[in-house]
Amino acid sequence: MSKSDILIAFEEYLSVTRALSAHTISSYISDLEQLEASGTKALTQLDTNDVLGFLASYANKRTLNRKLSSINAFFHFCHLHDFVSKKIKVPMAKVPRNLPKYLSSEEIMKSLTLIDRSTLTGMRDYALILFLYASGCRVSEALNVQREDIVEGWLKIRFAKGEKERVVPLAPIAIEALESYLQHERMHSPYLWLNYRGEVLSRISAFKIVKKYLGVSPHVLRHSFASSLIIGGADLRVVQELLGHSSLETTQIYTHIQKQNLADTMRSYHPLS
Fold it and tell me: Is 267 a catalytic residue?
């Protein structure tokens, strides 16, 4: 296969088999085109030294790992389909993991009181923020939710990352806010979150809404959802299931909150503290 052919085949694999987003696929292909342009060999003729030579110019470990993710996925694909005889896999660089920023439920609910719910826009913004906090959805998942995806207090997330379908229960207060918004919304779209033209709300618009009232990004509400569960005593594997993480290792970023909660409890209630 020629270089262009194999990248087209890899792009199709990422889209159909891996079910990755268009943005992620574009990043993967861009990284591989940079790798291809850095030398004189075809991608399938590269060896580990060629890959390491390309990566040597990236000092930032996070950037390095992003490039590595693309490259390792590509060579896994090539080995899987016998386009290469030997699989290249370079280990990821160790990066100190940032602790996730989150808001307490008190902070979120206090900010929600600032929303003017006498308007349709205000009802939508109030319901959207509660929905994100109550479900732990990624913003992309939330914007793809349709009316039929909520049945008897349960939300089916059909458009999850990597197409991993999951079901999560919604808090009554979030359902009430959503129903109030939908009763006044007259666009009759199958989707929940719409702009004034009746089109599905964009990620940028959702970001602006959450930023306006909470001062954070929508993803912080996802962290807040997980953190509230952990502080309340939820099992880490249950949180993993609700967040849709394929690996428990991803969910373990919240263990620091669990430990802090245990430490606070000891200091508050143990007679020797």
Answer: no
